[in-house]
Amino acid sequence: MTRRVLPYRVPTEDVMMAEPWLLVTEDGEIALPEALPDWDYQMDLHLRRTVRVDLDRVRSQSGLPNNTALVLAVVWTATGSNLSGPARHIRLTAGGTEKVELDVRLRGADLGGLLLLDTALVLAERRSDARPSSPRRAGSVLWSDRETLRLQGDAPQFPMAVIDFARTSFPETAAWHLQISGGLESATMGSLLLLVNERNTVTATAFENAGKPRQVDRIVLSAVYADAARTMVEHALGHDDFAEDADFADGSLGATLLSLFDQLFPGQSINDIRLRRRQSPALFASDLQAAVKIFEVS
Known about the structure:
Helix content is 26%, strand content 29%. By secondary structure, it is of the alpha+beta class. Strands 1, 2, 3, 4 and 7 form a five-stranded antiparallel beta sheet that branches. Helix 4 (215-237) crosses helix 5 (253-264).
C-alpha cells in the first residue's frame, strides 16, 4: 500500500469522524451506491454527509496555533464531462469538536461518467508564524478522503433537452434526434445534444422516469441509446481521420467516439468495420445492434 508523505505535520486519522455520503431521493436518504445505471443528464444529484472534526487535536498534532482557521471543503470532478468545481466550503475557527453537515447539490448537466467527491480539511490562509515542520501555505491538506459514484455504464450519455419538434425543422412525429456538431477535436459536451420530442409522450415520459424507470421506460431508453450509438459510430466512420492511431485530446468528440467504438467492437479494427459498413450495411446494422445489447433490460 502506497502512502503519500507530506512535507509537513498532519494529524492522525482519528481526529476526523466522517460518515458515509448519502444520496437524497424522493423516498428519503439512502447510502450512496457504487453506481446509478439509470442516471441521465436531467437528473440532478443531492448528497449529504456529516463530518465531526476535533479541531483542538487537529491544530495540536499539526503544530498550529490554537486560533488557526481551517476549511472543510468538498470538490467534485466528473470524468464524463471533464468538469469539476467546489461543492461546499465551510470555514472552521472554533475549538473543540465541531459537527459539520455537508449538503451538496450538483447539476446533472455538468456530470457524467465517474463522479469523484473529494472532502478535505485544509489550512484556510497562509501562516507566516508556523513552525518549520507545520503547514503554512493556504490550502495545505491536513486530511482528505474520496468517494466515487459511477453515473453511466457502457451506453452513451450526453446532454439532452425536451422540445416541441413542431417548432423545429425535424419531423413533427419523430421521437428523438441526436445532434452532432463540430469536428472530432471539438469538446464532447459542446458537440452532442439529444433532443426529445415532447409530443412523443412515450419517449418523453421514459426520460422523465429515468431515475426510477418502469419496464416500458427501460425498453424505450434502450432503443434511444442504441440508436444514438449507431448515429455516433456512423458519424465517426464518416471521418477519414478517425483511426486507431489518431491522437485525440481528452474530452474531445474524437476521444469519446474512439472510446465508444472500442466498447462496441473490442479487438476489431476501424478499417474493417468501415469496410463492412460500406460493403454490407445490413450486416453492419445487425452487428451494431448486437454490440449495444438492445432491449437487454433487467
